[in-house]
């Protein structure tokens, strides 16, 4: 019981860091109107933020291996997110926005490796599953909360900048609370081991990175551009965000069902089912309109969540224990960069030239082809 408080503190920091990135999607329509930009420029904000997140994930391990340690890295991440959001609130120059979104992504990216390492150091191994399950509520809740919170904060501030500032203040408070209650002295991480560099030549690593790129693109990438796509069909921003929030409620439970199916039939077979099914639903987001489009929002949101339990299970089977953490630390940043950055940026560019429906349909076609990568998921020596 005495570990519940620290665990909730970690979960709160993870929630606010993830929310600071995911809330951009529901705020994009207001940002486009306020800044006088198109879909392509809005999509580039996400690409810059993903570049930062990619860098933060890669920097986290070497940073935590110094005197900064895991606790210090968590505090830097939380306070850095707060600083970045505060600077976004104050930024008078449009040209600086890309850099500040990159900075936000960088600080947010520092958290996850140190957060997981510290939780597993604090919690007895027999309780790791429950602890990680509580911790993983943060991103799932963020997907549900972000659209509703965006609308509530816009009602209070009438500005996307004000919404970002409030999240930044909350992140700063959580970071200081963490430093006060748990301190900045904690276990140190381990830097990258040169012995693991041959892993870079393994086809399975890059196949895994490709699968995570498409999986994250189907989930987070589509999510961030979906409000703009729904508004393209004449749906109001408020209704689009409400629909997005309700549709994501299914993700809180369906991932457990996907994990159960993955255990029953094997993760590769599960991925061979989930990826094409998600691809068909994503194509539906591009082809349909009216009520059928709204139904497809629910279906695509549910299917996109199914990818992750099977993907992490497949990764654990393919890579031996001594290099598994390196495989995760290399494949997931690439997936975040391409899936949460490049894919929505390309959807935005296609949307500016033609329409967002075409961009989402093209993403669905890529997902249909994704099972081709499964043939490279052979056990790595």
Quick rundown:
This protein is mostly helical and 381 residues long.
Explain the overall architecture.
The chain is an all-alpha fold. The protein folds into two domains: 1-191, Growth Hormone, Chain: A (Up-down Bundle), CATH 1.20.1250; 199-381, Growth Hormone, Chain: A. The protein is built from 16 helices and no strands. The protein has helices at 4-22, 24-35, 39-64, 69-90, 97-122, 128-135, 137-157, 160-182, 203-232, 237-247, 251-265, 267-287, 290-305, 307-318, 321-353, 356-369. Helix 9 packs antiparallel against helix 13 and helix 10 (237-247) packs parallel to helix 13.
Any key phrases for this structure?
381 residues; mainly alpha; 2 domains
Distance between the termini: 41 Å
Helix content: over 70%
- What is the number of helical segments per DSSP (H or I, 4+ residues)? 16
Task: Spell out the CATH superfamily of the largest domain.
Answer: MFS general substrate transporter like domains
């Amino acid at each position: 019981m005495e570990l519940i408080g620290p665990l909730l503190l970690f979960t709160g920091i993870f929630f606010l860091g993830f929310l600071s990135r995911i809330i951009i999607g529901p705020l994009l329509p207001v940002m486009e109107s306020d800044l006088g930009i198109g879909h392509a420029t809005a999509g580039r904000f996400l690409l810059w933020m993903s570049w930062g997140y990619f860098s933060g994930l890669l920097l986290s391990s070497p940073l935590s291996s110094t005197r900064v340690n895991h606790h210090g890295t968590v505090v830097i991440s939380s306070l850095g997110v707060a600083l970045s959001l505060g600077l976004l609130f104050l930024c008078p120059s449009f040209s600086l926005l890309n850099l500040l979104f990159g900075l936000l992504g960088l600080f947010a990216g520092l958290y996850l490796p140190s957060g997981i390492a510290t939780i597993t150091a604090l919690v007895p191994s027999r309780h790791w599953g429950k602890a990680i399950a509580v911790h993983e509520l943060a991103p799932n809740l963020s997907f549900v909360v972000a659209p509703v919170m965006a609308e509530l904060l816009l009602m209070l501030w009438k500005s996307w900048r004000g919404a970002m500032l409030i999240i930044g203040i909350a992140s700063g408070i959580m970071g200081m609370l963490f430093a006060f209650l748990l301190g900045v002295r904690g276990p140190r991480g381990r830097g990258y081991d040169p012995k693991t560099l041959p892993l870079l030549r393994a086809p399975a690593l890059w196949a895994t990175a490709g699968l995570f790129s498409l999986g994250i693109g189907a989930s987070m990438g589509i999510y961030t551009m979906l409000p703009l796509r729904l508004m393209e069909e004449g749906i109001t921003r408020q209704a689009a965000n409400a629909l997005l929030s309700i549709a994501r409620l299914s993700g809180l439970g369906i991932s457990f069902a996907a994990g159960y199916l993955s255990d029953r039939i094997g993760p590769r077979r599960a991925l061979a089912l989930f990826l094409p099914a998600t691809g068909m639903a994503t194509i539906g987001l591009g082809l349909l309109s009216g009520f059928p489009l709204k139904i497809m929002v629910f279906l695509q949101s549910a299917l996109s969540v199914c990818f992750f339990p099977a993907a992490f299970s497949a990764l654990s089977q393919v890579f031996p224990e001594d290099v598994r953490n390196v495989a995760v630390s290399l494949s997931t940043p690439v997936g975040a960069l391409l899936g949460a950055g490049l894919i929505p940026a390309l959807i935005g560019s296609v949307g500016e030239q033609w329409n967002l429906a075409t961009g989402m349909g093209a993403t669905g076609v890529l997902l249909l082809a994704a099972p081709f990568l499964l043939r490279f998921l052979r056990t790595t020596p």
